[in-house]
Design a protein that fits this description.
Length: 153
């Protein structure tokens, strides 16, 4: 689900020409099945100057990615923040698929069920960070900034 605009218009407008990358704010895709969590994260990111696209569950996350890539001016998000446990596809399943497809987009996983096994699997799949809920927004902000800095090179 995308806020601030109609869903279709927001998704179509959410992906720009890669030639304008340096002139725009980084775009972050936030996926969580809890509206309150998405809203909290979106507000924090928008206040920090980021563009935000939202997805309400695993299938919506995949749809947002595909819509962005197949739009007239396609471009992937600069960062993905996703909950681990969501209906349809888990954050780990989406991360695994992205890596199989050779996508190196940084992914931050958030979870209320973080154990050593999950953290190990996330690390193996190349997650930039795994944050256990509840986390401080400052912790997420720091993870976002660090992941984007590494992605920029």
């Amino acid at each position: 689900m995308v806020h601030e605009q109609t869903e279709g218009a927001a998704r179509a407008a959410a992906w720009e020409d890669p030639k304008t990358v340096s002139a725009r704010a980084p775009r972050i895709l936030v996926a969580d099945d809890q509206l309150e969590m998405r809203t909290l994260i979106r507000k924090m990111l928008v206040r920090r100057g980021y563009e935000v696209v939202e997805a309400s569950d695993g299938p919506d996350l995949v749809r947002v990615l595909i819509d962005g890539l197949t739009a007239d001016e396609s471009r992937a998000p600069d960062l993905i923040i996703t909950d681990v446990r969501m209906p349809g596809f888990t954050g780990l399943e989406v991360l695994a698929r992205l890596r199989r497809e050779q996508w190196n987009t940084p992914v931050i996983l958030i979870t209320a069920f973080g154990d050593a096994k999950l953290h190990g699997e996330a690390q193996r799949l190349g997650a930039a960070y795994v944050l256990d809920k509840p986390f401080e927004l400052d912790e997420l902000r720091d993870a976002v900034e660090a992941a984007l800095a590494v992605a920029r090179g």
